[in-house]
Specification:
With about 325 residues, the protein is α+β, with helices and mostly antiparallel strands. The chain has 2 domains: about 5-195, 3-Layer(aba) Sandwich (Rossmann fold), CATH 3.40.50.170; about 205-305, Formyl transferase, C-terminal domain (Methionyl-tRNA Fmet Formyltransferase, Chain A, domain 2). The chain has helices at about 10-20, 45-55, 70-75, 90-95, 120-125, 160-185, 215-225, 300-305; strands spanning about 5, 30, 35, 40-45, 60, 80-85, 100-105, 130-135, 145-155, 230-235, 240-250, 260, 270, 275-280, 285-295, 300. The strands form 3 sheets. The protein has a 7-stranded mixed β-sheet with strand order 5-2-1-6-7-8-9. Strands 10, 11, 12, 13, 14, 15 and 16 form a 7-stranded antiparallel β-sheet that branches. A two-stranded antiparallel sheet has the order 3-4. A hairpin with a 2-residue loop joins strand 14 and strand 15 (about 285-295). The radius of gyration is 23 Å and the shape is elongated.
């Protein structure tokens, strides 16, 4: 079976690797154009392009998916299937070409978390379960008939980066299984229940500011849902600080020798025993474990406190 693959980031590479290793013919890989980055404007290829070239696969990087020349190229490859993983929205003129259809791998249990950032929003909302879904493409994004789903349990301390890696591997297995179902004409598609749909829109920098006037559990979920990228942030004395890992405090800490005002329950108030850093939230306290001060690398709270100990009245804002 001939499979055209379309994807861009690291998340998609594992699926392409699985397709190739499973023995499917991949006549074309489609990804985003090279971009220039840094002071030297170094040319950067997408993760998918680098892998495809290593495997000797033909790569196309169209500026526009509606370019007639691109459509002609896709048709010339006579694909049985197009597989899409973390790519752009395909026009119908492209996804209708394959004889056996086009499908997408999405990092959520559809119809929950339709959109660009399903992993982040699942964690921000405190979900205890996630997974992947493969579904046939249709005009409206993330709404096509589902082919299969694979579920994973989310640990309360799991970060977005960690869940990304789990779903990347589970997703690759789901992609190969989906191709097998299509090849055997064994797909039993299920229509999505639109009444159960939830959004997972793209996250912008302004969405990442921590609101300390929330319960510690919600702040914790917000932090891990944005870790390591783009990173939930706050400010201390006018300097931005990203908080990359935290935990809700369940043990008593009042009997420890603390700096700062441990009795100050105003949201954002800081206290420390010299090694551990605590922040007051609404009616509860959060321990900050890993931070990244502006312009510096990520570090433990203990290391951060060595360079900037807490003084009375300080707070994250």
């Amino acid at each position: 079976m001939r499979v055209i693959f379309m994807g861009t980031p690291e998340f998609a590479v594992e699926s392409l690797r699985a397709i190739v290793d499973a023995g499917y013919v991949v006549p074309l890989v489609v990804t985003t154009p090279d971009r220039q980055k840094g002071r030297g404007l170094k040319t950067i290829q997408s993760d998918v392009k680098r892998f495809a070239l290593e495997r000797g696969l033909e790569v196309a990087t169209p500026e526009s998916l509606k370019d007639p020349g691109f459509e002609q190229l896709v048709r010339s490859k006579s694909p049985d299937v197009i597989c899409v993983v973390a790519f752009r929205i395909l026009p119908e003129s492209i996804f209708s070409i394959p004889s056996r259809g086009s499908f997408n791998l999405h990092a959520s249990l559809l119809p929950k978390y339709r959109g660009a950032a399903p992993i982040n929003w699942a964690l921000i909302n405190g979900e205890t379960e996630s997974g992947v879904t493969t579904f046939f493409l249709r005009r409206t994004v993330d709404t096509g008939s589902m082919i299969l789903q694979r579920r994973v349990t989310i640990d309360p301390e799991t970060t977005a980066g960690e869940l990304h890696d789990v779903l990347m591997s589970v997703g690759a297995e789901a992609v190969v299984e989906t191709l097998g179902l299509i090849e055997r004409d064994a797909v039993e598609p299920r229509i999505q229940d639109d009444t159960q749909a939830t959004p997972a829109p793209k996250i912008f920098r302004d969405d990442c500011r921590i609101e300390w006037d929330l319960p510690a559990e919600r702040v914790h979920d917000f932090i891990r849902g944005l870790s390591p990228h783009p990173g939930a942030f706050t400010h201390r004395g006018g300097t931005m600080v990203k908080v990359l890992r935290s935990r809700s405090v369940v043990e008593a800490v009042a009997d420890q020798t603390m700096t700062g005002d441990a009795s100050d329950t105003h949201p954002g108030a800081l206290s420390s025993d010299g090694r551990r850093l605590f922040v007051e939230c609404r009616s509860s306290r959060l321990e900050v474990l890993i931070v990244q001060p502006e312009g510096r690398r990520a570090m433990s709270a203990e290391e951060y406190l060595r360079g900037r100990p807490v003084t009375p009245g300080e707070r994250f804002e």
